[in-house]
Each structure stands twice: as C-alpha cells, then as structure tokens.
Amino acid sequence: GAVVSQHPSRVICKSGTSVKIECRSLDFQATTMFWYRQFPKQSLMLMATSNEGSKATYEQGVEKDKFLINHASLTLSTLTVTSAHPEDSSFYICSAGPREGLYEQYFGPGTRLTVT
Amino acid sequence: RKEVEQDPGPFNVPEGATVAFNCTYSNSASQSFFWYRQDCRKEPKLLMSVYSSGNEDGRFTAQLNRASQYISLLIRDSKLSDSATYLCVVNIKGTYKYIFGTGTRLKVLA
C-alpha cells in the first residue's frame, strides 16, 4: 500500500515553455500533498504544501506565480512550472500523506526536468 | 544553523561492518522522526520511523534522544545493497511538514 505515482518521469523542454507534473496517490486518499525540489548533491527542499480543495502554501522564496499547484481531488495534485528557465532544471518530487492519521509521507518516483 | 544536520560522509565501510549515523535537530517542536533511504537519482524511501524508546528492524536500529535533540541509525552486518544516502527527517508538531537533513552517504565495499 501507500503508492504514489508521478508523471512524467522525465521531461525536456525549451526555455519559456510551461511543464505540468502530475502526482497521484494510487491506493489511499491524501488530504495533503507536498512538492519538493532537489538539486544535484543537495537534499530535498520543500517548495509547497498542497491541501485538497484549498490554495497551496508556499515556502519562503518559492514564487507561487511561477510554480502553480492545483490539488483538485484527494488523489491528484499537479505542479506547473510556468515559463521555465534553465535554472529550473531539477528533480521534482511529490509526496502524499497522511494516511490514516500517520505522519509518514510517501514519495513519488520524481520527475527530472531539463530546460534547454 | 540548519534545522536538521547530518555528516554528509561518505562513510566507506567493508561488508559486514557496523556503521552508525547521527543527526541533530534544532527545533524543539519536532515531534516525529524518520530515517529515509535515497538511492542515486531515485525518490526517498521510508526506512524506519524513530520512536522515543528506540526501535529495531532487522539489522537497523534507531534511537532518539530528545534531551540532546539527536537521532541515530545503526546498521549492523552491512551489505553492498545498503550503499545509499540516508536522510534524517523531522516532522514539526502541528504540521505535516518534513524537514530533511542533507543526508549521509554510505558506501559498503566488497
């Protein structure tokens, strides 16, 4: 149980375009989903917390107009990187939780974004 | 000072060795603690939660010292497949947010 999927797993796009990443909890309903970014040799940095049916809460320094988050249902959250630039190239990982009151988060397999 | 600090390593150990990692956290409102394992270019996977009384799962033992605000992970009889980065993760009371340490790299050598 506690499977989280992410799509796409890898995307290459041109500078200035927008990219949408989907995160789904497959076998449980996630009231909260999280979006992280990880640069090479660094740890995961939380970008935003997404609650179903409400606006996402962004961490300090993360531009909400650039990273659009939509949590339309208890099993789906999307992250759209708008007007992507090469510096947005990173590994984007979502997680979902809690499940049955537990504080454990379950991570998707990640999306590797390369902006050329 | 980072909220969650770990020695980045790498720790290079021979197969069969016992290795221990420590992690310190600064937020006294931290309530839940975890060790995650992350393989290169993959997502983190939950290794174990850390309970106040300490807990063991096979070759892995986790300890929590709230007074000193540190967490430890002990791996006994290291296997080649244990090579990975081990992430110390702290959850802040009243939130579902995770704060990640930078991770400790372990290389188990044949």
Number of strands of chain B: 11
Main pleated sheet of chain A: 7 strands, mixed
Briefly note the structural class of the backbone of chain A.
Answer: mainly beta
Q: Span from first to last CA of chain A?
A: 37 Å
Number of helices of chain B: 0
Most extensive interface, residues per chain?
Answer: A-B, 22 and 20 residues
Spell the H/E element sequence of chain B: EEEEEEEEEEE
SSE topology string of chain A: EEEEEEEEEEE
Oligomer: heterodimer
Description:
- The complex is a heterodimer of chains A (116) and B (110).
- Chain A is mainly beta.
- In chain A, 0% of the residues lie in helices and 51% in strands.
- Chain A has strands at 4-7, 10-13, 19-25, 32-38, 45-51, 57-58, 67-73, 76-81, 90-97, 106-107, 111-115.
- In chain A, the strands form two sheets. In chain A, strands 2, 4, 5, 6, 9, 10 and 11 form a seven-stranded mixed β-sheet that branches. Chain A has a four-stranded antiparallel β-sheet with strand order 1-3-8-7, with no helix packed on it.
- In chain A, a hairpin with an 8-residue loop joins β9 and β10.
- Chain A is globular.
- The mean pLDDT of chain A is 90.
- Chain B has 110 residues and is mainly beta.
- Chain B has strands at 4-6, 11-14, 19-25, 30-38, 44-50, 55-57, 60-65, 70-75, 84-92, 98-100, 104-109.
- In chain B, strands 2, 4, 5, 9, 10 and 11 form a six-stranded mixed β-sheet that branches.
- Chain B starts with a strand and ends with a strand.
- Classes of the chains: A mainly beta (116), B mainly beta (110).
- Chain A binds chain B through residues 32, 34, 42-46, 49, 91, 93, 95, 97-98, 103-110, 112, and chain B through 31-32, 34, 41-46, 49, 87, 91, 96-103.
